Amino acid sequence: MFDVIVVGGGPAGLSAALVLGRCRRRVLVCDAGAPRNRRSQALHGYLTRDGIAPADFIAAGRGELGRYDVALRHGVATRACRSTDGSAFEVTFDTGPVERATYLLIATGVADEVPAVPGLAACYGRSVFHCPYCDGWEWRDRRLGVLADGVSGARLAISLKTWSADVVVVPFQARGGRLSSAWRERLAANQIVIRGAPAVALHHSDGLLRDIELRTGERVPCDALFFAMPQHPQSPLAVSLGCMVNDKGTVTTGRLCHTNVSGVFVAGDASHDAQYVVVAAAEGFKAGLAINRALQERLIGHE
Prior knowledge:
This protein has helices at 11-22, 54-64, 120-123, 132-135, 150-160, 181-189, 237-240, 277-299, and strands spanning 2-7, 27-31, 70-74, 77-82, 89-93, 99-106, 110-112, 128-129, 144-147, 167-170, 193-194, 199-205, 208-214, 219-221, 224-227, 231-233, 264-266. By secondary structure, the chain is an alpha/beta fold.
């Protein structure tokens, strides 16, 4: 039996496993190997790790766990429930046997709903992005496009003015998500043009965007495109266990990543809206700290 099963081997899960391993806890980390940023060329904003490839970052993190009592498993956790006597969590995997643990940390993150526009998939991670903080600097002073509808698109477009003076909004749907006159005035005041027709294709050279084709046949020159679309949790485990979800679709957690379900913690992108690698790693550390304290409290009769 493990002290903790960590579902998700990204920055949050590995950071928690490192803390718990150093506390001499028996930890199992399960990961499917499909992180949210797997299409990215590099991650940014992480002090001492700025510009590192996501795969190299994960490999380094997994390597650091080798000296501690942390087991690593490739696979998907398909189900989690309390044991019959209520003393542990039982986690079912698509590979290997059911495992049991006193505590459960879910760090599987979220999945972005990528716009279904021909050509976009080939550009995703090279010249199409969802996070200006992650990739805006690399495309500073270039022609930037926003593929989004409504207020979310308007907000994203205005935020991109931080990196470039040349920003255009292209709707994803035919109606484009209605914008109030006030929002249209804000965009106009910031010299941001809204195209009336939706995008029907992205034209590129080996993933490097050249222009956006509109339904009218017009082509809008563009060097990099950012999109604002909904997202959803990568794993249904937290919801299936009864964890509360907020209006943004992520799990409601406390200061140390605990949920309303006793013994279940959630860290990383699936719990808060500040979705960055450095934040996820910090949340993983906090979750590991909280779980170790809970295990210590059990020795004196408190959970």
